[in-house]
Amino acid sequence: MLTQLSTVKARLAIAEADTQFDALLTSFIQAASTIFDAATGRRLARGEDLIHEFTAHLTEICVGCYPVESVSLFEVKSNDLIGWVLADPPDYLVRHDCVISLPHPLGTVNQQARVIYTGGYVLPGSTPAPGQTPLPADLEHAAVEQVAGWFLHRDKTGLVRNWPSGGVYQQFIQTPLLPAVEAILKRYERWTL
């Protein structure tokens, strides 16, 4: 998850001992994590032995989870009968922590290739080892603010207009993310070529 329950509870001024909303807040944190991945077109959480498939004639591979920490191997498949075959390890270059550049294609346009690698951000609550990248503070802050926004307006879900008797007319934006959160996520969108 992109933030910890204790961080969200502190933001909302909910005592750590008060567990009344823990399940709800945890589900909001999980939802924010999933939505952030979808909005950025990538997986943000660190993963090991991740598989990214691509057409074998490509030399610029934009993986789905970065920053890339290490590359384990490349494989090529010409047909399903033979399956995946280990490719000769090319002299690759990881550019901008997210694009794996090959000096030559691993195969043809009719072949499938894949790379096995480790990448992504170490999430809050875990200590990054050398060579690993922690989740940027602005992404965690965006997750905290989004969860807080959902929590504070949980009784108005689906509400388009509210005009209580003698009260102020309110109309809420029909967007799943706060505008400030969307602006932060824009900076972390996955590269495409």
Protein traits:
alpha+beta; three-stranded antiparallel beta sheet; 193 residues; single chain
Average predicted confidence as pLDDT: 92
What class would the helix/strand composition place it in? alpha+beta
Strand order in the largest sheet: 1-7-3-4
- Domain count, please report it: 2
Intertermini distance = 29 Å
- Please give the count of helices: 4
Order of helices and strands: HHEEEEEEEEEHEEH
Question: What does the radius of gyration come to?
Answer: 21 Å
Largest sheet: 4 strands, antiparallel
So what's the oligomer here? single chain
Overall morphology? elongated
β-strand percent reads: 15-25%
* Helix-residue proportion: 25-40%
- Unreliable residue runs: none
Task: Give a description of the structure.
The mean pLDDT is 92. A 4-stranded antiparallel sheet has the order 1-7-3-4, with no helix packed on it. It has 2 domains: 5-43 and 139-186, no CATH class; 47-119, no CATH class. It contains 4 helices and 11 strands. It has 193 residues and is an alpha+beta fold.
